[in-house]
Design a protein that fits this description.
The complex is a heterodimer of chains A (about 325) and B (about 350).
Chain A (H helix, E strand, L loop, with lengths): L6 H6 L2 E3 L5 E6 L8 H14 L5 E2 L5 E7 L3 H15 L23 E2 L13 H12 L8 E4 L13 E6 L2 E3 L9 H9 L4 E4 L2 E4 L9 H5 L5 E3 L4 E6 L12 E7 L1 H18 L9 H8 L1 H8 L10 E2 L22
Parallel strand pairs in A: 5-6, 6-7
Antiparallel strand pairs in A: 1-2, 2-4, 3-4, 7-12, 8-11, 9-10, 12-13, 13-14
Helix pairs in contact in A: 2-3, 4-7
Chain B lengths: L3 E5 H12 L2 E9 L10 E6 L24 E7 L4 E3 L7 E6 L1 H15 L7 H7 L2 E6 L23 E5 L3 E6 L2 H10 L1 E2 L34 H5 L5 H5 L6 E7 L7 E7 L20 H20 L9 H5 L6 H16 L1
Parallel strand pairs in B: 2-6, 6-7, 7-8
Antiparallel strand pairs in B: 1-9, 1-10, 2-3, 4-5, 4-12, 8-9, 11-12
The chains are: A alpha+beta (about 325), B alpha+beta (about 350).
């Protein structure tokens, strides 16, 4: 019998159309990019049982399992159940029918660097925040890319996301413990922004230069620098790859709490739904902001947010990027 | 009069509260979230407001030496005409809760600051004379401890020795000064502190008497040239490192008014042996490692009859490059044996 698929429904269910007729590929979400070996075995089992035994590790830290016959989707969905329970339900995702597979595919997998469960540089448990966001935002059908990185080194490349969340710290200086060894000053000068200078044998921090990476804390041999308790983040917005205008995400909010980050992204969903172009299936969020302008985005996305003391916001944003249409810079070097 | 007691947790709290009225009580304390890495804790010596704040489960990252030798201490103020010595901020006597290795560590500092060629360092002495040791009984090693090898696992230099148990505290009070408060609140009990008798890590010390000069230039030290990053953590965490530098700082734009401070320095830190004119000894990290090693287990012993190192192992705990001092001592001993054969 010929296949009779509701393609839109199938795509929402995380099965994509592939080159090979009658065969699909399943996109498995791994929020925060961290999973246990048993979950990995389930994913491997899906590939072996329903696919061709191969897996693609996606750029967003999920898995794509290719060469699954469309007709086996319901079997695959049944086999997915324990994975959905562990990686989605457990983090608070609302799923009406757990036997029916993924309930949405618009918002991409929320990726994260390895974070402070492992990395000494990280200022936060990035996996945990990615999972919290998964629970809060998934499922939705908007084209939104989110990533969380543990420090301004940005290993997960939040600069290419719609929402790039950077965990930062507020370094606190304990004057009496400082022996003036200059380790922090050198570290900041060599690796970061040169926010620290020596004055009278002690260290002076230029707050406007400090990006909150925590290098001073890491380098201090007397714990004269510590991180102020409580989590702080910088949020970069509307970076993207894409075929028209690739560009870097730029800082929008700085020194904000985790609640502020979550609320901002939550508020963005109705904003995007209100303003998106209805004539295309999934308009990329960055282009919506381009059209409405930053001020409208600000007004709607910041509604009802209670900012923590010390929170800062960008006055204006100019996104560095380029227009792919610009061909004038090319000349022929080989005929 | 009997000098050992058993106290319930409640009774010990009463003792603690009573002592707090007259003494500043200092001990290893956990500071949540202030560790070097995010979401890790820092354990360092600090005033305790309650005995519940005393951290017993983990070794402190820093030693109690700040109490007698602060990282940054103003010695005197000057104004171009005269100078005046800086007074201590308070006259409080201090009870410090510490383990035998650290008591021995402070003994090593005493020798450096007060028994070295009959010169007594007054700044050290005035802080030292207000300390009272309450020894925390230590029957089990932490990671990297090698106090037994360094003969620093035992001490009888304490005003009181305390065993902290689940239901309370057993105490031996050696100083009459504190006898009454324990006697009034506790009940008589036989208690003598025990000491850790074996560490997992054992160190073989080289013989001081037969140290061949060639070992100073041995290639043994070369590996540390590239391994050590001269961060100075081994020095700052060490209970016996006593090196300092002096710094004069001037107030505002003044050319005459200011203060002189002494600030911790360390042989692994850059600039430690920079001289006027730019000359510097021990440019290579391996040379610094050699200098430290010999200071800790060779020349100090020649001078004072005991080793400087007390085997607390903090240097091994904190080295970001996994350089182990206990291993270094053993490497040195092995190398000396090789040479002898």
């Amino acid at each position: 019998m010929s296949l009779d698929l509701n393609r839109k429904k199938v795509t929402k269910n995380a099965y994509r159309i592939t080159k090979r007729r009658n065969y699909t590929a399943l996109r498995v979400r791994v929020p925060g990019g961290h999973l246990n070996a048993a979950q990995l075995s389930i994913i491997a089992g899906l590939a072996e049982t329903f696919g061709d035994g191969t897996l693609h590790v996606t750029a967003r830290q999920g898995f794509e399992i290719p060469n699954i016959p469309f007709e086996r989707m319901s079997e695959v969905n049944a086999a997915l159940k324990p994975l959905l329970a562990e990686l989605q339900l457990r983090h608070g995702v609302q799923i009406d029918n757990i036997d029916a597979g993924y309930p949405g595919a618009g918002m991409r997998n929320i990726s994260a660097c390895v974070g402070n469960r492992i990395c000494p540089f990280a200022n936060a448990d990035t996996t945990a925040l990615a999972q919290r966001l998964e629970g809060m935002l998934y499922p939705n059908d908007l084209h939104v890319k989110i990533a969380v990185t543990g420090c301004p080194n940005d290993c997960v490349k939040v600069h290419l996301q719609d929402f790039g969340i950077v965990a930062i710290c507020e370094p606190e200086y304990h004057y009496d413990d400082c022996i003036g060894c200059e380790a922090c000053v050198k570290a900041c000068e060599r690796k970061v922004t040169g926010a620290l200078t020596m004055q009278n044998g002690k260290v002076y921090r230029d707050e406007r230069r400090c990006i909150g990476c925590g290098e001073c804390v890491l380098s201090c041999p007397t714990a004269a620098w510590t991180r102020r308790p409580g989590r702080l983040y910088r949020v970069l917005i509307m970076g993207r790859t894409g075929k028209r205008n690739p560009r870097l995400a730029m800082p929008f909010l700085d020194r904000v709490s985790e609640d502020v980050v979550c609320q901002l992204i939550k508020n963005t969903l109705p904003y995007a739904e209100r303003h998106r172009l209805k004539c295309i299936p999934k308009e990329h969020i960055g282009y919506i902001v381009d059209r409405t302008g930053l001020d409208v985005f600000k007004e709607e996305a910041l509604t009802g947010i209670e900012f923590n003391p010390g929170a800062r916001i960008a006055k204006t944003i100019q996104w560095p990027g380029y227009n792919t249409l610009n061909d004038a810079n090319f000349k022929l070097i080989s005929k | 009069m009997n000098k050992s007691f058993k106290l319930s947790s409640e009774q010990f709290k009463t003792v603690f509260a009573g002592l707090s009225e007259h003494y500043c009580i200092v001990g290893p304390k956990r500071f949540a979230g202030l560790g070097r890495f995010s979401d890790t804790d820092l354990i360092r010596y600090a005033p305790l407001t309650s005995i519940d704040e005393l951290e017993l489960a983990e070794k402190s990252c820093f030693s109690p030496k700040d109490l007698v030798f602060p990282p940054d201490e103003t010695l005197f103020y000057f104004n171009g005409q005269q100078f005046s010595e800086a007074a201590l901020p308070d006259n409080l006597e201090i009870i410090v809760l510490l383990r035998p290795c650290d008591i021995n560590g402070i003994d090593r500092l005493d020798r450096m600051f007060m028994k070295n060629a009959d010169v007594i360092d007054p700044y050290y002495q005035r802080r030292r004379s207000r300390l009272h040791f309450f020894m925390i009984e230590c029957r089990e090693s932490f990671e990297n401890c090698f106090c037994v090898s360094m003969n620093a696992n035992r001490s009888d230099n304490y005003a009181a020795a305390l065993r902290f148990g689940k239901d309370g505290v057993e105490a031996e009070v050696a100083s009459d000064k504190f006898l009454e408060t324990f006697a009034v609140n506790g009940s008589v009990f036989e208690f003598k502190p025990e000491f850790v008798s074996e560490n997992q890590i054992k160190v073989e010390l080289p013989k001081v008497e037969t140290m061949p000069p060639e070992i100073f230039t041995d290639k043994l030290w070369e590996e540390y040239d590239s391994r050590c990053i001269s961060c100075g953590r081994c020095n700052t965490s060490c209970v016996t490192c006593s090196c300092f530098t002096t710094r004069d700082l001037f107030y505002g734009d003044s050319r005459t008014c200011g203060e002189r401070r002494r600030v911790w320095d360390g042989c692994h830190l850059d600039g430690f042996c920079d001289m006027a004119g730019g000359h510097t000894f021990r440019k290579n990290k391996g040379e610094r490692m050699r200098f430290k090693t010999f200071h800790k287990i060779y020349d100090y012993r020649k001078r004072f009859g005991v080793d400087m190192c007390v085997g607390c192992g903090r240097c091994d705990d904190v080295c970001p490059e996994y350089i182990s001092f206990s291993n270094c001592i053993n490497k040195l001993s092995a190398r000396l044996k090789e040479g002898a054969e």
